[in-house]
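I would like you to sit down with the record closing this message with an eye to the fold:
=====
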Amino acid sequence: MVPWYKRTLSSEEALGRANTHLENAKETKDRRRAKKLCDNAKEALERMDISKSIKDHDQIIAAFRHHGELLEKLGLPDEAQLSYSKADELRYNQSRWNRL
């Protein structure tokens, strides 16, 4: 049995958690706290089953982009690039899905 803290989240639950963490990170002046909140947002997004989240793709892409922007502001360009790459990958897959 998967522990509760590793279970897969619905897109709605994951986006809710991620967006809350990202908004809190944006508002805080404490760099360490902002980084921890960004990590929490990333963890929530990673626990989401994206394959079941077709209708939420635009919101998921926006969350990954917002995550990257915050990491860039924190001076973490390599980590930001990973989020941007994930957003680009999802956008590419979404455009492929829409053509089918």
